[in-house]
Amino acid sequence: MTLTHSGTALGWVAGLQFAPVLLFGLWGGVVADRYDRRTLLLWTQTLYAVQALLLTVIVFSGHAALWLLYVLSFALGCVFTVENPARLSFVTELVGRALIPKAAGLNILSLNAARLIGPAIARVLIGAIGTGWVFALNAVSFTVVLAGLLSIRPRAREARAVSRPPWTGAGAEGLRYVAARPELVGVFTIFGLAATFAVNFPTTLTLFAGRVFDVGSRVLDLPREEKE
């Protein structure tokens, strides 16, 4: 928004970020099912850190361009397509079967708490040290995640003697599995509606901040007297 002052460009960034999930989401789940999830998470978190580092270099070099943000947004979405199912299913390897519902609930709680607390902290940091240093801190923060993953020793995955379809048919088999279970169809329908119409609120809030309330990220953390 600061770079282009265009709501359309902001929408394209969000769209490119989530396009890989829409296009390749089924195969992201297949990859998470066929390969070691801890290894996948180590690779994907490393790629997240590389992207944050690239953003840092771009901002500090003064060569920020819209097309670079488009490319990085699409790349982020590609990594997320594999990382998200790997991370969610990795929970089952950390706890016993009886604790899976509680562990899944805590996982979702931590994600939503991060979405609430993270932007608030970023708002203050952007006003205090600038956008480039916030990207740098974000890149450094992934070292904590990688260290945590390296220290984790998950439970051994249960060996199941099942025939796996070829890669070309794995996604279709997953769709048939869901279609045969009405309870899953309902869950996926609700999730699809929420993901389509509700998850885009960061884009809307950014436009409200800049155009309706006439403030930016650097202004949001100032005392009220200075804003006025």
What's the arrangement of secondary structure elements?
Layout: H1 7-34, H2 37-61, H3 66-94, H4 100-129, H5 131-151, H6 167-179, H7 182-197, H8 201-212, H9 224-227
Helix pairs in contact: 1-3, 1-6, 2-3, 2-5, 4-5
Describe this entry's structure for a reader.
- It is a single chain.
- With 228 residues, this protein is mainly alpha-helical.
- Helices cover 78% and strands 0% of the residues.
- It has helices spanning 7-34, 37-61, 66-94, 100-129, 131-151, 167-179, 182-197, 201-212, 224-227.
- Helix 1 (7-34) packs parallel to helix 3 and helix 2 packs antiparallel against helix 5 (131-151).
- It starts with 6 loop residues before the first helix and ends with a helix.
- Mean pLDDT is 79; it is low at 218-228.
Unreliable stretches (pLDDT < 50, length at least 5) are: 218-228
The helix-strand sequence is HHHHHHHHH
- Kindly report how far apart the N and C termini lie: 22 Å
User: What general outline do the C-alpha atoms trace?
Assistant: globular
Structural class: mainly alpha
Write down the overall mean pLDDT. Answer: 79
Give the number of DSSP strands: 0
The helix count comes to: 9
Proportion of β residues?
under 5%
Nearest-angstrom radius of gyration? 20 Å
State the gist of this model.
With about 230 residues, the chain is mainly alpha-helical.
Structure characteristics:
mainly alpha; disordered C terminus
